[in-house]
Amino acid sequence: MSNNIKKLWLGFILVLALLFLSDIIIHRHSYFEIDGFFAFPSLYGFLSCVFLVFISKLIGIFLKRPEDYYDN
């Protein structure tokens, strides 16, 4: 990897860690019991993203066309 890409990854990881740990400093008012857990917004966003990736892979299995689909 180039040096710039390593710096970008390091920057992204640093920002994500700061957002994750900001739950220690920032007091959130929870409306439900589940959203009062530590770092719930971070975990919810990550798990939602993982879920969407898996669902898109599953949908891709059914919607995939052969490589020569347009040649016929």
Task: Give structural notes.
With 72 residues, the protein is an all-alpha fold. It has one domain. 60% of the residues lie in helices and 0% in strands. It has two helices and no strands. The model has no long low-confidence stretch (mean pLDDT 88).
Features:
72 residues; mainly alpha; 2 helices; flat
Give the number of helices. Answer: 2
Q: Give the percentage of residues in beta strands.
A: under 5%
- State the separation between the terminal residues, measured CA to CA: 41 Å
Mean pLDDT: 88
When the domains are counted, the total is 1
- Give the strand tally: 0
| Structural shape | flat
Helix content: 55-70%
Radius of gyration: 20 Å
User: Which assembly state applies to the chains in this document?
Assistant: single chain
Give a short summary of the structure.
The chain has two helices and no strands. It has helices at 3-21, 40-63. The chain starts with a helix and ends in a 9-residue tail after the last helix.
